[in-house]
Amino acid sequence: MIRRGFQAVIRLGHHRVLPGAPHILPRLNRTSAFGSSTDSLVSRFCLEKTDLKDYALPNASWCPDMLNLYQEFLEKTKTDGWIKLPSFKSNRDHIQGLKLPFGLAATSDKSDWRIFTRCLQVEGQGYEYVIFFHPSRKKSICLFQPGPYLEGAPGFAHGGSLAAMMDETFSKTAYLAGEGLFTLSLNIRFKNLIPVGSLAVLNVDVEKIEDQKLYMSCIAQSRDQQRVYAKSSGVFLQLQLEEELSQ
Amino acid sequence: MIRRGFQAVIRLGHHRVLPGAPHILPRLNRTSAFGSSTDSLVSRFCLEKTDLKDYALPNASWCPDMLNLYQEFLEKTKTDGWIKLPSFKSNRDHIQGLKLPFGLAATSDKSDWRIFTRCLQVEGQGYEYVIFFHPSRKKSICLFQPGPYLEGAPGFAHGGSLAAMMDETFSKTAYLAGEGLFTLSLNIRFKNLIPVGSLAVLNVDVEKIEDQKLYMSCIAQSRDQQRVYAKSSGVFLQLQLEEELSQ
Q1: Could you give the residue numbers annotated as active site of A?
Q2: Is residue A17 part of a domain?
Q3: What is the CATH number of the domain that holds A107?
Q4: Do the Cβ atoms of B158 and A167 come within 8 Å?
Q5: Residue limits of the Thioesterase domain (chains A, B) (predicted)?
Q6: What is the greatest pairwise CA distance in chain B?
């Protein structure tokens, strides 16, 4: 059921963005293929009142670059339309009251879950990140500081940890910008290694929404933009989350 | 220094493998561009005696599919030339006595490091995996079981966790097959979600070694090969690790 459902949806289209291919930036609608506006998705996502812990808040492990840029973007939430996204322990918390479409349901009975990018709980040890989203510009900024448990080559972040951070930033952006739910493809070109404990700034843009797919690009670089760490593109499939029936 | 060194090396070549492009499988040499044979790389990598903990051994969290296939490949290590790779806490343990070339050295003084794919220590919670490598066929098999802390969509592994697992399997294969050290590109097409706690089998092949680059492909699927989870390609840059000078 799971397989048939997801594959059938993917078969709807076969276009894929190729690395290096020219991007087209059409006028983006604020409404997705399914009719939910970005504003309503954002307001459901950014709960005004919740007891859930938000992991996207400064802590003692954040380097000065990360703290400064966080404050800078926090100011922009007041004046320039940026929104700071909360980051809970699990995606289950982000989609409360909703469930995945097409019978895609968890079969395991384990009760302790974590979203991969919040899998480590000691501050500074693993992923430290915060995502800011701009609804009308359909873009995101992710401030990412890899910890020593994300190592690949000695002293540097594992390429896979950056790949996962890009996928996660694409994922949240795709969902809020147009109900993009599933990664169809992810293409990354690595340029430089990220030193553990330093800041990488990920700039994500939604390039176009077409045939139920969102095409996005990302550049990860140092704060001063003098060092590019990697460039990537990602394609996400639009699918509407279903309302859960109350028992 | 770091940036100049790595970028300068990357500038040696600009070819990139494109997803969907035809792969060419030439006769592969057992010797890399630098003269180290696969056999000598493997024997240095697979330490006969060590006190280091090998994380690529069965534990109580492994599902029956994973245990069975592990035993199957362990038999093949006796008869068919496969080698089970050890998996230590950090890449620092894997390259003892060696250091990265071109001044790529750790600048942080943190002493507790972990390779990203061994960042979680509770059995079954995060990455469970073991890699088998076949030196003369230049291919690898990775048995991968994602735990509940690797979640993306509720009940399924995060796409980024599979991306990282692919990158890590490419990485070890590239190093042993021809001193491939750094990921230049990683292109993934996702087909189906991997249920948490189940087995995904990653088949990695070195397609060609050319211009100091290794071109690899991977298919991740269920044990019965009836469900493809993702296909990917990766390009790694050949660089020789340097002998450390004794103090």
Answers
A1: 167
A2: no
A3: 3.10.129.10
A4: yes
A5: 155-226
A6: 55
- Domain of B174, in residue numbers: 38-243
CA-closest candidate to residue B14, choices B209, B205, B238, B184: B184
Rounded to whole angstroms, the Cα distance separating B193 from B202 reads 14
Closest CA to B185 of B4, B28, B29, B10: B10
Q: Using a CB-CB distance cutoff of 8 angstroms, which residues of chain B are in contact with residue A152?
A: 91, 115-116, 171
Query: What does A4-36 look like in DSSP terms, one character per residue?
Result: HHHHHHHTT----PPTTPPP---PPPSB-TTS-
Q: How many CB pairs under 8 A join A and B?
A: 230
Query: Testing the interface with A: which of B188, B229, B233 to mutate, by most A Cβ within 10 A?
Result: B188
Say if the Cβ atoms of A193 and B2 lie within 8 Å: yes
Question: Of B146, B155, B161, B229, which is closest to residue B192 (Cα–Cα)?
Answer: B229
Contacts of A122 in chain B (CB under 8 A): none
Taking CA atoms, what residue in B is nearest to A118? B149
Q: Cα–Cα distances in Å, from A49 out to A86, A94, B114?
A: 11, 13, 36
C-alpha distance from B80 to closest chain A C-alpha (Å): 30
Most distant pair of Cα atoms in chain A: their distance: 55
Q: With an 8 Å Cβ cutoff, are A106 and B154 in contact?
A: yes
- Total domains in chain A come to 1
The answer to whether residue A154 sits within a structural domain is yes
The pTM of this model reads 0.88
Q: Each residue's pLDDT tens digit in chain A (247 positions)?
A: 344 434 445 444 333 333 333 333 344 445 567 767 888 888 888 887 888 999 999 999 999 999 999 999 999 999 999 999 999 999 988 888 788 887 677 665 567 899 999 999 999 999 999 999 999 999 999 999 999 999 999 999 999 999 999 999 999 999 999 988 899 999 999 999 999 999 999 999 999 999 999 999 999 999 999 999 999 999 999 988 888 765 4
Q: Which two tokens stand for residue A222?
A: 């140092």
Q: Are B229 and B162 in contact (CB under 8 A)?
A: yes
In a domain, A220, yes or no: yes
Taking CB atoms and an 8 Å cutoff, what residues of chain B touch A190?
Answer: 182-186
B51 a catalytic residue: no
A138 part of a folded domain = yes
